[in-house]
Amino acid sequence: MDLGLKGKIVVVMASSKGLGKAAAMEFAKENATVVISSRSQEALKLTKEEIQKRTGNSDVHLRICDMSKEHDILSLFQFVIQKFGRIDVLINNTGGPKAGGFSAVDDSDWYNAFDRNLLSYIRTARAVLPHMKKQQFGRIINISSSSTKEVIDGLILSNTFRAGMVGFSKTLAREVAGDNIMVNTIGPGRIATDRVAELNQLAADRQQVPIEKIIQKSESEIPVGRFGDPEEFAKIVVFLASSANSYLTGQSLVVDGGLLKAL
Ligand SMILES: NC(=O)c1ccc[n+]([C@@H]2O[C@H](COP(=O)([O-])OP(=O)(O)OC[C@H]3O[C@@H](n4cnc5c(N)ncnc54)[C@H](OP(=O)(O)O)[C@@H]3O)[C@@H](O)[C@H]2O)c1
């Protein structure tokens, strides 16, 4: 299948590692022009080199962008438009919110999670939409969590703001579908990244058991029998963000190896 991504301008937020990096790698394999970003110049530099080496695509660019800072977001998209004159694909992603239940988070945690995990996606969408409308082409993927379908105990900030993300994403999808802009949300279940390793460690500390026990139990709950690989997640992101997807919009999907029982 021709995904039609060759030469497309793709911006992947929070992509120095984990799911964002895996998505950037897959877009580079499709010969897109890829802009990666995160808070760390050094990490981005290494990631850029790795993507170029593994894919043979030299058209990979990096920009610092802290998703909780409006100025960083505006300046990233100013750079993209000045350099390439268009933007075809936006992959919204950011670091996970602080873990904890209701009593573990205070007002500043709530505000921080709003800034980083919801307002950031709204700001990036606002920055790209005028260009996508002018082009009459655009794809926006909002990376969320399986908590959009089934809350995860002890992750109240994720459960709250990812639900907001789905409402935002669905509403926006309906507003811009007539401009050939597709907007979808994709939630990872348990994909093997540092974030999942960190949550496993927190669970092990809380339950005072070895981390291997947490991993074993977690994998046994997944019908496929293992954590997902970031590349498996990224391939789905890339398909939905390509011109091969011209009709699926406004959806909230999970990539979870069959983990969730919710319909
Ligand atoms: N992996 C899973 O199975 C899973 C499950 C549910 C939800 N999620 C969610 O999916 C998202 C990505 O997760 P991941 O597993 O890929 O995490 P990860 O491996 O920890 O990677 C997080 C990425 O986000 C960047 N980042 C963190 N804070 C940022 C900020 N304020 N601005 C810009 N970039 C920032 C990090 O780069 P720098 O440190 O260089 O900034 C890094 O590149 C998170 O929101 C996570 O909660 C993941």
UniProtKB/TrEMBL annotation:
One of its GO terms (molecular function) is oxidoreductase activity. Keywords: Oxidoreductase. One of its GO terms (biological process) is bile acid metabolic process. Pfam families: adh_short_C2. It comes from the Bacteria. Belongs to the short-chain dehydrogenases/reductases (SDR) family. PANTHER family: 3-OXOACYL-(ACYL-CARRIER-PROTEIN) REDUCTASE, NADPH-DEPENDENT REDUCTASE BACG. This is 3-oxoacyl-[acyl-carrier protein] reductase. It comes from Planomicrobium soli.
